[in-house]
Amino acid sequence: MKRPRRAWMMPASVLVALLLGLLPLPELLQPLRPYWLALVVAYWVLEDPDRYGLGFAFLIGLLADLTFGSLLGEQALRLAVMAFILQRFRARLRFFPMSQQALAIGGLLLNDRIVTTVLHLTLGVAPHPDLAWAAPVLGMLLWPPVYMLLDGLRHGGWRRR
Q1: If we measure between CA atoms, which residue out of 73, 81, 100, 84 comes closest to residue 161?
Q2: How far apart (Å, rounded) are the C-alpha atoms in residues 105 and 89?
Q3: What is the pTM of this model?
Q4: Are 36 and 63 in contact (CB under 8 A)?
Q5: 1 pLDDT above the threshold of 50
Q6: Which secondary-structure segment (H or E) carries 20?
């Protein structure tokens, strides 16, 4: 028996991630903002690789660049790098327990922070504050609830992991 496809889920999740990225935060908390879009893209690349891959990540990144007013192509590059690594190790990641999967996502978010820092240093853009290096840890802690929420909505019920 085939479940009905919920076509609205992917655009809705990307929209919510973009809105969370635009949500105003106090200046002190700004560097700790989780990379919501990376968490959402990671979910879709892991769970539906036939539909969502490098092109999807790149286009979502371009949309984010336009939405947030960042360097055109910066987030597209960041999300494409992340999607490439996810696709490469998808077969293993899918069968990790949630705690290990969260650690892997944390590693990917840390890699994203490194890519961003190298890109900013190369282009002469001011680097993020030191506190921004804690954001991947927050993203790692948020991975299980984000995954469970998206998976539950996508499948119309809660699955055990």
Answers
A1: 100
A2: 11
A3: 0.91
A4: no
A5: no
A6: helix 9-22
